Amino acid sequence: MTSNPTVDAVSRLLSRPSGPLGFGTGLLHFVKEPRSAIELLRKAHEEGVTYFDTARLYGEGRCEAMVGEAFAHMRDDVLIATKVGILPSASDFYTRARGKARALLRRIPPLRAIVPPPTVRFPEFFVFDRQRMQQSLETSLRELRTDHVDVLLLHECKPEHVQSEEVCDFLDQMVREGKTRTYGIAPEAGAMKAIAASGAAYGEVAQFDASLRPGMPPPAASGPALVVTHSCLGQRFQDQLARLKADATLKERWSCALGIDAADPSALAQAYLAHAIQQNAGGLVLFSTTRPERLKTNLDAPAWLNSPERAAALSRLMADG
Fold first, then answer.
1. How is residue 117 annotated by DSSP?
2. What is the mean pLDDT of the chain?
3. What pLDDT sits at residue 12?
4. Strand pairing report for 149-155 and 51-53
5. How much is the CA Rg of the chain, to the nearest whole Å?
6. Under a CB-based contact definition with an 8 Å cutoff, are residues 298 and 287 in contact?
7. How far, in Å, CA of 223 to CA of 3, rounded?
8. How far apart are CA 274 and CA 298, in angstroms?
9. Is the pLDDT of residue 115 over 80?
10. Beta strand pairing status for 21-24 and 79-84?
11. Are 149 and 181 in contact (CB under 8 A)?
12. pLDDT at 256
């Protein structure tokens, strides 16, 4: 993959005044009403978020559509990242209607033996042939109501995809055509380690699990210009929250050191976000929420780093586990 000096997406990302947090839309389809999800996105923007990460996979395409509706009238005010490489399961009207009908009929005991169960459909992974990547991106652009994205990422790619001439040519062509400003990778943890160890070029952006950041090399001339981390409020956070609620001594130690109620999910989430920002200095940290009242708490996380003592205490506690 080659770098185009005319591409300014990364410099725009790094110069945004919104701070080091971006909004991940992977949970957006769990908001009960689409209108509420759109209002949540706009509220995040009003609170200062400019970077929004999405994918064809999320909500089987519904999340891209909500991002598109939220920002179609202010496209130049936001930066949008989406992905190719995973196609959502088929969800045409006929398929959905047939599945719902089967599920309803099987609730009737006499019909359970003769009506087949709904077909289980799964996303299709490793879709990195040129034709389907092109189709996926064109679908994303339609759903997002735009003629370009700012960042195009290879979703859960492997080293062989990064090194594929077909993939590299496709990405370079999308930049030349103006359909993406820049590109990069969004692999799982093991693949990210392997790609980094291979020394292969993979574009301007690397997006990976926040737990990897301490051991990953900082961006260099041959590496990504921007590192984006995610999932700092994932399973590790949930496990620690459960421990703090169950262990009064541990809770007291964390609470005293940080000056918070460490068993309060909102307060602990803010601390975890601050730690992720601390470990990815100069990059972006994604957070997700389905609750508007959590936005301000999350977006106040960078203020933790204004106190070196508090930041150091947080680092020590996170290292101790």
1. P
2. 87
3. 61
4. unpaired
5. 21
6. yes
7. 11
8. 9
9. no
10. unpaired
11. yes
12. 96
Question: pLDDT tens digits for 81-99?
Answer: 999 999 997 654 455 555 5
Chain mean position to CA 235: 15
What is the fold, at CATH topology level, of the domain defined by 19-88+123-320? TIM Barrel (3.20.20)
Burial class for 48, CB neighbours closer than 10 Å (0-12, 13-18, 19+):
middle
What's the angle, vertex CA 66, arms to CA 204 and CA 89, rounded to 5?
80
For the chain, domain boundaries: 19-88+123-320
The predicted structure's pLDDT at residue 128:
97
> Averaged over 139-151, what is the pLDDT?
96
Q: What does the block give as tokens for 171?
A: 């990405």
Q: Could you give the CA distance from residue 153 to residue 159 in angstroms, rounded to a whole number?
A: 14
Distances (CA, A) of 163 to 171, 185, 194: 12, 12, 12
90 contacts: CB under 8 Å, gap ≥ 6: 121
From the list 25, 100, 23, the residue with the least C-alpha distance to 57 is 25
Q: What is the DSSP string of 144-212?
A: HTSS-EEEEEEET--HHHHT-HHHHHHHHHHHHTTSEEEEEEE--HHHHHHHHHHT----SEEEEEGGG
User: Is pTM, for the whole model, over 0.85?
Assistant: yes
3-state class (DSSP) for residue 7: coil
pLDDT band at 101 (very low <50, low <70, confident <90, very high): low
Beta bridge partners of 153: 83, 184
- Band of pLDDT at residue 4, cut at 50, 70 and 90: very low
51-53 and 79-84 as β-strands: parallel, antiparallel, unpaired?
A: parallel
And the tokens for 209?
A: 């699990």
